[in-house]
Amino acid sequence: MNKHLISAASLLAFACSAFAQNSVTLYGVVDEGFNYTSNVGVDGQGEHNYQLAGGFAQGNRWGLTGVEELGGGLGAIFTLENGFDINNGRLAQGQRIFGRQAFVGLTHAQYGSVTLGRQYDSIVDYVAPLTANGSWGGTLFSHPFDNDNTNNTFRLNNTVKYASPDWSGFSFGGTYSFSNSPSFAVNRQYSVGARYANNGLQVAAAYLQADKPGNTSGGAIAADDANLTGDRLRIFGGGINYEMGPATLGFTYTNTSVKNPVSAALPGVSFADLGAAFGVVITSLKYQNFEVSGKYQVTPALFLGAEYVYTMGHYEASDGPVKPKYHTVGVMGDYSLSKRTDVYLQGAWMRVSGGKTDSIVDGGYVVGAEAPSSTSNQFILRAAMRHKF
User: For 36-388, CATH number?
Assistant: First the structure.
């Protein structure tokens, strides 16, 4: 009997020790609220729109993340993260069960981490946190059409990612995404980025290139997951944030170009149709985004934030360029009811000026709206609550 008791106690001690070296965490965000949109174009006519909508300040999600200590400072890690629509219960990100993230890998405090699976690119990892939409503002504060992916319109499939440890405030990383097809360069992606943070100062820069994004369903950027598709997508940019007590000021610049564009992350937009409006072929599409933002922590529970984004567009066609200009303004107030629950009020306004294409892209379009405006202006007001677990 004593031998059996000793064996059981030893097994229990081993199990407790093993459990202490491993962990799995369930987490999530639920964001739901009411949106008013000033003008939604319907058959050429503009109408007001009132709707319940979720996932604006942060995308709705639940996920599992875990780590197992392997010894010698090495650990095995994984993350499975689901996105969903709170209003109808459907899966988000193209009906993928773990559409936000799904990866496994190894990590070491001294050497960094290598992960494999569906992941974020370096623009999202390094530059987006310095933008208003990528940090505190969310979807309504995105740059036009989310052309630089700072709002995570697309994720990367078939991806190998490296992320360095933090060396006195400096860190860097990169991704490579396989096409997973015999046509090696069709729908592949690579990106790199770096960040430096010290005493309230943050500086970051990143570069991404995708060859024929959205051309296949199983490649790096899937056809149902892309924002801008064409022969080649390039995004680069950088930014700076500086904290001065309760205030944070920021500036970012991003540059996006698409060679031989096919479509955009906008309902009903095909560049073939857009080209037909010109009677010519559109050979390239470019956006330059200049953002200034500010956030002020009025009290520990209340912050106020604002941004302005000036975007220069350039549609190159065989009979000459068209150069629209986009002005985006956003304001937000957020009040925390507890450490995990807050309520917020947001407003975002977009105006398009400059060159006209006589197509749907001439209308104002705040990212997150149901459709572009029938005029050059669009405004969205949102009141919502958010709970994190």
Answer: 2.40.160.10
